[in-house]
């Protein structure tokens, strides 16, 4: 990290595939992919694009109706080069009161196509069930495997094994979520990571009351910024410890 920061100070922004990379400047780095600190807002607030958020924005603009329910497709998030994960789509739906049915299938990210496999990834299932628990359940919706056997699985018992495996995977994910909630370490880490949004500016941004004049003023006041640690490795270790 020290080497990276040194390079940021002495080297100009470089180009990759003909695209500029403003994230090499610390002010843009703070809001690069996930906006973790409100001090990055005056320079690069916004810019994150995901399926669920895109659909929500279109629906509000075009229909204006209050009837909202998403069917979240875990497999589609993983395949088709979408660069999205199922958990993000579920959280987007949950936060906006849209979490309905979940197609609890999965795919092979290396293939990049619709493979409709039964979910067997415990980590993925844990994240899926975390959204369900936070939502207080998904009734009257539910889980739909929407999956099929692989071509080489030709025995009748394979269909039984696949369904049992899929259900067990979701059940283990639910148990893992209970462990995370009881421990509380990961939730505390997330709370600390976004604590800047409890500040004066953060509250104004969340309320939609921060204008460009205010952001310009804050940018001039803050000057050189410090990059807060996201504690990524610690978060991953806490998560992995329950699997």
UniProtKB/TrEMBL annotation:
Source taxon at top rank: Eukaryota
InterPro entries membership: Xyl_isomerase-like_sf, Xylose_isomerase
Known catalytic reactions: alpha-D-xylose = alpha-D-xylulofuranose
Keyword line: Carbohydrate metabolism, Isomerase, Metal-binding, Xylose metabolism
GO biological process, alphabetically ordered: D-xylose metabolic process
Name of the top EC class for this enzyme: isomerase
MF term (GO), any: xylose isomerase activity
Protein EC: 5.3.1.5
Protein family according to the UniProt entry: Belongs to the xylose isomerase family.
PANTHER family, A to Z: PTHR48408, XYLOSE ISOMERASE
Name of the featured protein: Xylose isomerase
């Amino acid at each position: 990290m020290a080497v990276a920061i040194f390079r940021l100070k002495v080297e100009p922004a470089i180009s990759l595939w003909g695209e500029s990379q403003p994230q090499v400047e610390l002010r843009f780095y703070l809001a690069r992919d996930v906006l973790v600190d409100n001090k990055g807002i005056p320079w690069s607030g916004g810019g994150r694009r995901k399926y669920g958020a895109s659909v929500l924005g279109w629906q509000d603009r075009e229909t204006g109706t209050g009837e909202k329910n998403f069917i979240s497709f875990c497999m589609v998030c993983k395949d088709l080069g979408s660069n999205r994960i199922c958990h993000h789509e579920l959280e987007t739906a949950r936060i906006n009161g849209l979490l309905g049915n979940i197609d609890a299938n999965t795919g092979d990210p290396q293939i990049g196509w619709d493979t409709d496999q039964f979910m067997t990834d415990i980590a993925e299932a844990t994240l899926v069930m975390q959204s369900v628990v936070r939502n207080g359940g998904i009734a009257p919706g539910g889980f739909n495997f929407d999956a099929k056997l692989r071509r080489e699985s030709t025995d009748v018992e394979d269909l039984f094994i696949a369904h049992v495996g899929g259900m067990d995977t979701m059940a283990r994910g639910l148990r893992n979520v209970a462990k995370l909630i009881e421990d509380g370490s990961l939730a505390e880490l997330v709370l600390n990571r976004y604590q800047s949004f409890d500040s004066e500016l953060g509250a104004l941004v969340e309320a939609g009351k921060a204008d460009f004049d205010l952001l310009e003023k804050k940018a001039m006041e803050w000057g050189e910024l410090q990059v807060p640690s996201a504690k990524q490795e610690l978060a991953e270790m806490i998560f992995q410890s329950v699997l």
